Amino acid sequence: MIRVDRKVCLRCGGCVAVCPHSALRLTEHGIICDEEKCKDCGICIEFCPVKALESRGDKE
């Protein structure tokens, strides 16, 4: 699953747009990751311009 550093995140929504599994969504509180949908593919991590996302590494 993806962890979002909310202190760094710009809330630009770019990661939401590139997620092929629709696991991320932008809310008024920031980016939320749906654990059921996230495949931990890392596409969102690579896309983030401020490196606010990282893999928790707990997806099998």
Report on this structure.
This protein has 60 residues and is α+β, with helices and mostly antiparallel strands. It has one domain: Alpha-Beta Plaits. 17% of the residues lie in helices and 23% in strands. The protein is built from two helices and four strands, in the order βαββαβ. It has helices at 14-18, 43-47, and strands at 2-4, 24-27, 30-33, 53-55. The strands form two sheets. Strands 1-4 form a two-stranded antiparallel ribbon. Strands 2-3 form a two-stranded antiparallel sheet. Strand 2 (24-27) and strand 3 (30-33) form a beta hairpin. It is globular. The mean pLDDT is 93.
Concise description?
The protein has helices at residues 14-18, 43-47; strands at 2-4, 24-27, 30-33, 53-55. The protein has two helices and four strands.
Tell me the layout of helices and strands.
Layout: E1 2-4, H1 14-18, E2 24-27, E3 30-33, H2 43-47, E4 53-55
Antiparallel strand pairs: 1-4, 2-3
Largest sheet: 2 strands, antiparallel
The CATH architecture designation is 2-Layer Sandwich
Count of all domains: 1
The Cα radius of gyration reads 10 Å
Whole-number average pLDDT?
Answer: 93
Order of SSEs: EHEEHE
Q: Which range best describes the helical content: under 10%, 10-25%, 25-40%, 40-55%, 55-70% or over 70%?
A: 10-25%
Q: State the distance separating the first and last CA atoms.
A: 10 Å
Shape: globular
Across the major sheet, the strand order is 1-4
Strand content: 15-25%
Report low-confidence residues grouped into runs of 5 or more: none
Structural class: alpha+beta
Predict the CATH topology: Alpha-Beta Plaits
> What's the CATH C level?
Alpha Beta
Q: What is the helix tally?
A: 2
Number-wise, the strands total 4
